[in-house]
Each structure stands twice: as structure tokens, then as C-alpha cells.
Amino acid sequence: EGVSRADCVKEWFLNPDSDHRDKLLACGAIIVAESRLEVLRETGFICSAGIAHNKMLAKLASGMNKPAQQTVVPSSSVKDLLQTLPIMKMKQLGGKLGSSLQSDLGVKIVGDLLQFSVEKLQEHYGINTGAWLWNIARGICGEEVKSRHLPLSHGAGKSFRGPETLKSLSSVHKWLCELSAELSERLCCDLEQNKRIAHTLTLHASAYKSDDFESVRNFPSKSCPLRYGTGKLQEDALNLFNAALREYVGIMSKKDHEWAITGLSLSASKIVAIPSGMNPIMKYFHDQSQSRAPPDKSNEL
């Protein structure tokens, strides 16, 4: 009363009796708030966040208050947070392990784990898993925060349901051109940012024949060497689809409405880094296009 919030915060920060770890969390909360605001400015998207002393608690907290909020978990709140948390809400306990805890040990909430010694848990679930269960029940986690690995593949796809199913070659070709353009953009971005190239293009589709609804899983996937450039991707995607369709319905049976496409996707795989010391990248792709197909000047990378 009569004191500004800023002065209260300053007094708390300067107080030598204040918990040092909580001060670190407060600093983290400020950084995260600024980052979330920057995301909103740059993209227009809102996001939520969790701030805690370890990765497990932070991830748990990030989903507690949404949308566009952040949750801080100081050490003094960990016990209360976990005490009544359903076991299936914990990461890696939503599957078989969580079901086993409920059926074998009667564990319904994380707080129930506190009654078991580490030896008891290890007896049931092995040394490593037992120790891990004992730790997470107390909010202890030593897992490091790691940078995300670069994707092993890139893809673009779309599903077509009900009246949206594709029943003509022209409609399929239209969407393959759209997906090829999307995939090409992702590949060029990866090339520019990470200096990586993809070598294989694969087409996947789901379909059914009008007289055989059990055929939905039988549409074959087709692959070919990947050529960079939107035009080349579009051309190769169309060729892959036509080859797969011939195999699916037969060479003499390509009439409209004898088949319907419910899903289309293109993926680029076998992505590798360009070796250091290699010739200029434009020359590399020029050489590739010379060996695979006639040059397409309008779609060169």
C-alpha cells in the first residue's frame, strides 16, 4: 500500500534474504515475456511459456495457463504442483508405463509415487526407470535442453475429404503443382540457411476405387532423383503420380470417377550437407540438371 510495484520488486531483488534461485527465475520470466512479445510483433502469433528450474517442470508449466500467458514454478511450489497432478499428465507417463503404474501400484496421481522407495520402484521397473520415477515425483530432472536437430526430410501434403476428393487428373495435377511449389520453397530455404541438399523425391497418395472401398491403402508410392527448381519438381511429381495411377487402376482404366484421391503428399529425403571445399553451388546444380534432364532456364535455382 502506497508503494509502487516496481519499488516492491526492486526491494525484493536487493534483499539479501530473498531466495537466489527465485531471483534467477524472475530474470528468466522477464526474458521469456520479452521473447513472447517479439514473436507477437514479428508473426502475429501468441504463445505461452513455462519457467522453472528444470526442463520437465518448465514444459509442464507451459501448458497450464493458456492462451498467451506464462507460468513460473519456484522451488517452493513444486510439491504442491505435483501432489495432485494425474499421472497420465506427466511426460512419458501417458502410455504403457503410466498404465502399469496405475494397475500394478495403484498410482493415480504423481503424489502417490512418494510412498514408494527408490528400491521398490527399481524392483518393478528396473534400475534406470525406477530411479527416474523416484526423481520426477519430487520434481527432479537433469535432462538438458538441446537445440532441435535439423529435419531429415521435408514434405508438403494435403487431405481431401468427402466432396473434396480428387476425381480427375486435372484436379490432381493442380494440387501437385501447389505442393511442389511449397516443397521447393522449403528446400531452397534449407539450402540457403543450412547448406544442405536433398536427393530423393517421393510421392505418397491415398485413394479408393469407386467399386472397392477397401483399396484405400493400396495406392503405390513412387520415388525418383530430386531435381531443384519448382518447374522440375512439378514435372517429376506429375510423372510419379501418373506412373502410380497406372499401377493402381490399370493402364486402360483412367476414367474420371473410377478412382478418388483422398490424400496427396510430396517428400524430399536423403538430405546431406554440401561438402566443404566443393565447387560453387550453382555449378553443382547446373551439372546435376545436365545429367538428369534438359535445362529449364525459367526454373533454375
UniProtKB/TrEMBL annotation:
Q: Which GO terms describe its cellular component?
A: nucleus; replication fork; site of double-strand break
One Pfam family hit:
POLH-Rev1_HhH
Domain named UmuC is located at 34-94
**GO BP term, pick one:** DNA repair
Any idea which GO molecular function terms this record carries? Answer: damaged DNA binding; DNA-directed DNA polymerase activity; metal ion binding
- Show the InterPro entries listed in the entry: DNA/RNA_pol_sf, DNA_pol_Y-fam_lit_finger_sf, DNA_pol_Y-fam_little_finger, DNA_polymerase_eta, Rev_trsase/Diguanyl_cyclase, UmuC
**UniProt main location, coarse:** nucleus
Task: Tell me the compartments it is located in.
Answer: Nucleus
Entry keyword set: DNA damage, DNA repair, Metal-binding, Nucleus, Transferase
Q: Could you tell me what this protein is called? A: DNA polymerase eta
Instruction: Give the originating organism.
Output: Genlisea aurea
